[in-house]
Design brief:
- The protein is of the alpha+beta class and 82 residues long.
- It has two helices and six strands; from the N terminus they run βββαβββα.
- 18% of the residues lie in helices and 34% in strands.
- A three-stranded antiparallel β-sheet has the order 1-2-3, with helices on one face. The chain has a three-stranded antiparallel β-sheet with strand order 4-5-6.
- A hairpin with a 3-residue loop joins strand 4 and strand 5.
- It is globular and about 30 Å long.
Length: 82
């Protein structure tokens, strides 16, 4: 099975990650809250941040990888009302 969920990604200024889905939806995810986490520390380097690519399932920044499910989960957390 060769299922794809993502059609593109773009690292925008101020650590906003644009992710385009096959459905036509576009997610603008603010990555700033994650930049102090060990896993995401490399994204503070402009060269790593600007290296974002997708294979249709994952967004990769060098060794940092995010699945489409994880991206959606991160977006949901941004809008959770406590």
């Amino acid at each position: 099975m060769n299922r794809k969920y993502l059609t593109g990604t773009a690292p925008l200024p101020d650590h906003i990650l644009q992710v385009d889905f096959v459905s036509g939806a576009r997610l603008l995810l603010d990555m700033k809250p994650y930049l102090d986490k060990i896993r995401f520390l490399p994204l503070n380097d402009p060269g790593v941040w600007n290296s974002a690519v997708t294979n249709g399932i994952f967004v990769r920044f060098g060794n940092v990888e995010l699945s489409h499910d994880e991206l959606l989960s991160m977006a949901e957390r941004e809008f959770t009302i406590e």
